Amino acid sequence: MNHTLKIVPPHFDAVAAGQKTLEIRREDDKTFAVGDVLTLREWDDRRLPARQHDQYRLLHDLHISPPSSGGEREHTEYQKALTQGYTGRGCRVRVTHVLREPPFVPQGYAALSIRLLSQPPAAITTPGGVLTVQGEDDSDPAQYPGYAIAVDGEIAAIVEWHPDYQAVVLRTYTTRDDLEAQAYHRWDTGETLPELE
Questions:
Q1: Which residues pair with 21 in a beta bridge?
Q2: What is the pLDDT along the chain (197 residues), one digit of tens a residue?
Q3: What's the rounded Cα separation, in Å, for the pair 171 and 156?
Q4: Domain map (residue ranges) of the chain
Q5: What is the DSSP pairing of strand 146-151 with strand 154-162?
Q6: CATH number of the domain at 2-116, please?
Q7: 73's torsion region: left (phi>0), alpha (psi -120 to 50) or beta?
Q8: Inter-residue long-range contacts of 111-114, CB under 8 Å, 24+ positions, other chains counted
Q9: Which residue from 82, 118, 155, 185 has the least number of CB within 10 angstroms?
């Protein structure tokens, strides 16, 4: 399962550098498991407008929507304030171990051992479209580790290790809606392969 979580700048820097391999998280609205992928988005509440900082932070931390009596304008400003704290930086980690047992971890919390996943490069704009690496295929990364590559947000290729062939396999796609791979090739030899399962 994938989870998107906030993380403050000093902790984000340590995780992104591979130095911090443990996260302590509340499990009041989600449960973590080994194999989960966490997208950690850097959050700096100092970026919030000073007059709104305490009010919006408290409402958000308590999972309370702003009072409806404030009208649409107040609700829009509340939502805007909540996103102003994001810095635009993020990273992905995989949960490798979960500890919940007291006295080591307080009730309602989990200690998550994490491993930093390789981070895809920034998007590259080309005359043919915007090329991005979408990251690890989360379906079964232990069996078929690889990356999906997109052009303008649509899958164009998947590069993955295939255990049956003991080779890196390239699956290419067209812009058709059926998302059926159009070709399968071994990367090392270029040999065309029969349809893969």
A1: none
A2: 888 899 999 999 999 888 999 999 999 889 999 999 898 888 887 766 555 555 555 555 545 455 555 556 555 655 555 566 777 778 889 999 999 998 899 999 999 999 998 766 566 777 777 777 665 544 455 566 777 777 776 777 888 777 777 888 888 877 655 566 677 888 788 888 876 54
A3: 8
A4: 2-116, 124-186
A5: antiparallel
A6: 2.30.130.30
A7: alpha
A8: 111/22, 111/23, 111/24, 112/22, 112/23, 112/24, 112/25, 112/32, 112/38, 113/21, 113/22, 114/15, 114/21, 114/22, 114/23, 114/38
A9: 118
| Separation in Å, CA 82 to CA 58, 73, 88, 92, 155 | 11, 14, 13, 21, 31
pTM to 2 decimal places: 0.53
Joined tokens for residue 11: 């902790």
Cα angle for residues 26, 91, 28 (degrees, 5° grid): 10
Tokens of 61: 């931390």
| Residue 94 to residue 98: CA distance in whole angstroms | 11
Q: Hey, is 3 helix, strand or coil? A: strand
Q: Tell me if 95 sits within 8 A of 110, measured CB to CB.
A: no
